[in-house]
Amino acid sequence: MLALLAFAARAQDIEPRSYSNAPIGVNFAIAGVVYTRGSLEFPSASFLTDAKLTTQTAVLAYARAFDFLGKSAKFDVIVPYMFLSGNAVFAGQPVEREVDGLVDPRFRVSVNFFGAPAVGLADFRNYRQDLIVGASLQVSAPLGQYDRTRLVNIGGNRWSFKPELGVSKALGSWTLEGKLAATFFTENDDFFGGGRRKQDPIAAVQGNVIHSFANGMWASFDATYYAGGRTTLNGVRGIDLQQNTRVGATLALPLDVRNSIKLYASSGVHARTGNNFDLIGIAWQRRWGGGL
To answer: If you write DSSP's letter for every residue of 189-212 in order, what string do you get?
Structure first.
């Protein structure tokens, strides 16, 4: 019912059903594991070439559906812990890095302001989606692992803010989704070697085609394109403009009324800079409350 986990890297998330309705008062607990391999956009990736990085990330998340002025809304928090290893070239010299630590946690509030009224579990059984229009704001806090003497860190040592607008249209057993978002970053004033690093906003568009089955299983085919993110270090503009495309797929399998498993994967189709990596993940979700 709630596809909360996308992935715990800094690429733009691929997240189907993020604006689906849910019964008021229902809670969701999620635990997952994500594996990636390739070139990821870490805070200093523009300084590295031939990056070959591998990450294993354990993810814990919590979400709750609530009533916001008669409209359905959700709050969620995602806390990942990452193990990173790999090598790259910096200033013509090979470098290696192995590190583990907390990824910057993310907090989000989303509201469906059209087409998804706030209803309890009893009335939700009779709810049928047509057109949903919603919006969200996600905030990432600089609480992750960070070492100013290292080029590659798991945490970004900065805040980020991601407003998003989403539309979801049901057509029988199919659902079409579209989203527009932009991520804004504060300045990292303690970058590698004591520098000051700024990053332009990253704009993103995402599309999801979802098919629901009678037994509660659903599958999604996803694509996203994002651009921007050019950096400035100590007043010098970088040549790291991002113009990247990714595709992915998701499969959700219900186990019973309270538990489900989600499998998901994505891969880069085109990457101007960074984020040319492959990803695979699995997540378990449990829901309770709201009369379940």
So the answer is: EEEGGGEEEEE--EEEEEEEEEEE
CATH code of the domain containing 235: 2.40.128.130
Q: Which residues contact 69 (CB under 8 A, 6 or more apart)?
A: none
Cβ atoms 23, 291 nearer than 8 A: yes
Range of the domain at 101: 27-288
pTM of the predicted protein model: 0.90
In a domain, 19, yes or no: no
Distance CA 181, CA 162 (A): 7
Q: Note the pLDDT tens digit of each residue in 198-246.
A: 999 999 999 999 999 988 899 999 999 999 988 898 998 888 788 899 9
| 65 occurs within a structural domain | yes
Question: Among 131, 226, 218, which residue's Cα sits nearest to residue 176?
Answer: 131
- Which value, in Å, is the radius of gyration of the alpha carbons in the chain? 19
d(CA 3, CA 256): 16
3-state secondary structure 216-271: CCEEEEEEEEEEECCEEECCEECCCCEEEEEEEEEEEEECCCCEEEEEEEEEEEEE
Q: Which two tokens stand for residue 175?
A: 């659902």
Q: Domain for residue 35, yes or no?
A: yes
pLDDT tens figures, 29-51: 999 999 998 876 555 455 667 77
